[in-house]
Amino acid sequence: xxxxxxxxxxxxAVAARPRLWWAVTLGFPAVYHxxxxxxxxxxxxAWPNYAVTYDWLGNVTEIIRATPSLSDMGxxxxxxxxxxxxxxxxxxxxxxxxxxxxxxxxxxLIICLLGGLVxxxxxxxxxxxxxxxxxxxxxxxxxxxxGAALVxxxxxxLAWVVCCATPNWVVGLAILGLGVSSSLWLEQFGWWIxxxxxxxxxASLYLLSxxxxxxxxxxxxxxxxxxxxxxR
Amino acid sequence: MLRHVTQGLAxxxxxxxxxxxxxxxxxIKVAIGHQSMCTDTYTAGIVVKELKLLEKHLPKTGKxxxxxxxxxxxxxxxxxxxxxxxxxxxxxxxxMGDYPLIVNGAKFQATDSLRTYYVAGTGYNVKGSGNxxxxxxxxxxxxxxxxxxxxxxxxxxSAAWGMLLKAAQxxxxxxxxxxxxxxxxxxxxxxxxxxxxxxxxxxxEIMEFRGTGRKIYDGSxxxxxxxxxxxxxxDLADEYPEVxxxxxxxxxxxxxxxxxxPMRATDLxxxxxGVEKEVLYxxxxxxxxxxxxxxxxxxxxxxxxxxxxxxxxxxAIPPLDFKEWITEKYIKAAYKDMGVDYEKDKAEIVDxxxxxxxxxxEIWHARDGIKSYATLPEFLGAVAKFRATGAKxxxxxxxxxxxxxxxxxxxxxxxxxxxxxxxxxxxxGEAEKYAASVDGKVIDFEDAIGMKSS
Lengths: 232, 454
Known about the structure:
- The structure holds 2 protein chains of 2 kinds.
- Chain A has 10 helices and 4 strands.
- By secondary structure, chain A is α+β, with helices and mostly antiparallel strands.
- Chain A has one domain.
- A 4-stranded antiparallel sheet of chain A has the order 1-2-3-4.
- The two termini of chain A are 32 Å apart.
- In chain A, 39% of the residues are buried.
- Chain B is of the alpha+beta class.
- Chain B folds into 3 domains: 29-122 and 225-347, D-Maltodextrin-Binding Protein, domain 2 (3-Layer(aba) Sandwich), CATH 3.40.190; 132-221, 3-Layer(aba) Sandwich (D-Maltodextrin-Binding Protein, domain 2); 356-453, Beta-Lactamase (2-Layer Sandwich).
- The longest helix of chain B has 20 residues, at 241-260.
- Chain B is globular, with a radius of gyration of 24 Å.
């Protein structure tokens, strides 16, 4: 089956359920950030007591002005925050931010893209339910889910003062209970894990957009249509 | 790939915005990141800020004649975020401790186009005091060996964490390491929820002063100097070297101001930072933990190089070319302008064991301020007398016989000798050893006062 035919099948699936696609695409980033917030509140058993908005555009403009190398510029801009909400501990001195959630536009873009892929996979699963075996659907769904989890995990923007107070994806792991040394060790593999996540998602789309194998088709045709509840 | 595409799009759009921005009058931005909860950064942070010492030294002639300075200060609880903000050019000067300094230099050198310079120190303790391991005050743990198999927390990545790792290696002990922020660690020590907590200045002394914790290991035992310093973005330093020199002059002035009157300084610093003045006094007074000296000594380079190897082992941080990063050019020029002999200051290293020998013990009387006593019996007699009259004592200070470190009188281990003499120690083990050698007895502060009041 050609790539063009697969792409047509995917776009048809999206076109058949536009509302579902938009709901998942837009809802995913919102749910993702709410889940991070909920994880913090649940983990630390406390509500945030401060919020800060940053001049993201102004800061990015300054980075562009002050950074000669384009590759450096991109990496630094990717770290810029738009909004921060967290908890300040005032027991000592003028206060210390114990933990916080950061909204980082570069990360939000990636999560929106992830949301789009998850939405596409969702519509494709719905469209191909009649043509594919449950094993194929389940396999593609599981691989896609794992991919989404990996991408989501590596784009966490939580900060915890014990991890030197910088928002970093491994902070999410540390907050969830993984040892800090292990979490920090994993940091170097972040990009590979993120790429692997996207590859898994794309592989799921590829798998579902293709024709079922002969054996799978034969298995399906061996089942009488009447047994599947089709009208006689 | 995906990330690069996203970044590329964002950069493209914003380049257009930048190009369209109107031209503005010449303003030099000096944005400093400091830490009001880290005592060793104060001479390049809160003191310079509050006394406006930078403004005093900024150049206003020649090429700076028509320049406006846009000075801003940002307070952080650790060095990591300061480095991030420096990379984004929101800050161009950062003040932090040894380990975060190394991360700063290494992270900048890992970029294609950005660099920082380590241009000056703020203060140091040559033996490593400032970091310490503290246990709950009622704990039966008295030495680091007792921590075998116990739960020990520390802010991972901090200077205290580095010290803890070295202490564990040196003493061949293993414990369960937990990552806890200073505030959380201090709260857990107060509640007895953790066996020990390792932290940086002034957290150990805060716990001791509040009566919740007791030091069992001082950073001086690790034998690696503990120091803090100033890093500056290369673009600021290259374009406006006189501004960097002005900052270093301000650091020097801040140290001089503290040394002139430590009580006045700690009183004001308490108002600026929220850290108790009695805790700050143990750092900034004569004989205190901190030697205020911005010079860059060869020993500091050795210490930072050692610290880098620790970080490489634990976190795989990028390499750091110390020759490129550490530069004395600016501090030498600043000292020359001030007419101060840089090489003389650079050659001087304060060892508390030597420098504090013979310093008087002190009582911080709530009304009359600091009172000094040459001997421990005189000191104890005065404490007993003040207490008898109901006078309020803010804090008392003595010196560890072993290391020369300044201690709170109430947390020291006291040894009384058969001849009525006294000696004070940081650790119980050394106190017991000394007591055995002089046929004396280890007692606590209250017992010692009792002996002088009876």
